[in-house]
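**User:**
Everyone, produce one record:

**Assistant:**
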Amino acid sequence: MAQLIGGIEGGSTNSHVVIMDTKGNIIGAARGPGSNHFQLGIAACCTRIVELTDLAKKDAGLGTDTCLKALGLGLSGCETEESKKQIHDQLKNDYPRLADNIVIGSDADGSVATTSNEGAAVCISGTGSNTLVINPDGSRAQCGGWGHMLGDEGSAYNIAYLAIKYCFDDKDDFEKAPFPIDRVWDLIQQHFEIETQPDLLSHFYSTFDKAAIASLCKKLAVLAKTGDRLAQAIFHQAGTSLAKGIAAVYKKAAPELTERQGGLHVLCVGSVWNSWDLLLPGFVSYVKEKSSISKLSLMRLTVDPGVGAAYMAADKLGLHIERDYSKNYDVFYSYCRV
């Protein structure tokens, strides 16, 4: 059988898996729920990885007992060597037919690998947020990625949180929101099916579900596009936060990355980037007025996110996959300081 390499991009809410041959063709693919081990636990995370891989094997016409040559895992929450080792060891011990070799990195690692194996940057803004640059020498700098308790600025969760916090502070007469809260509060009530502020407490404490709270973001984007000034201000703030993260890692990016054609290439991953028109004013204002960025290119993927995780595994193990990075992304925004 031809050498087959799998890749999984696992976020907090969604996961994508592909199986590729050495020609770079995707022969099988599948999608499923999130695979963040902090949310699921190590055992459940491993079970989900196997279930997703089995779905992709079936899509490729393979038996689930087919052992892949390698499997790359780019998983949300896998920033430490300890967590990587725990997942690796449990998969190898409990599912020996999954793959001969397993390579694990964060979801940001997998995303960067989609665009280059010589360094690049990624800014993730989905349920959570994280910004990372990997230099050609392998050194790296990260800003964010610490979860909703310590970070996630510019993410869908943070956008939803800000909307709720503005409304609570305004209704409490603690601090007036910068614009009227009426339409945003109506939207919050509808989304969570509540009437009063206390009704919302269970959603943040006893039955906390980060993804469910973050899903309010999509509705806030619709509201912002109808002209609601508070919703627009929240997305302006999110755009500023994403620019801050990129500006932070830009300072630590190698000259080979910042001085290339188009400046630093930043892959933008996650559903919040679908609202770029709402993020743009805050993003551009910060880059122009408060950052040291000279040139910048923002890119979006044109291939399945799991492709980067497969590349990551192949490069780590010295395996061959044919690839043309330029076909994996489009540039949707360019900046050059004059």
Q: What stands out?
A: Residues 229-250 form the longest helix (22 residues). The first strand starts at residue 5 and ends at 10. The mean pLDDT is 92. The radius of gyration is 21 Å.
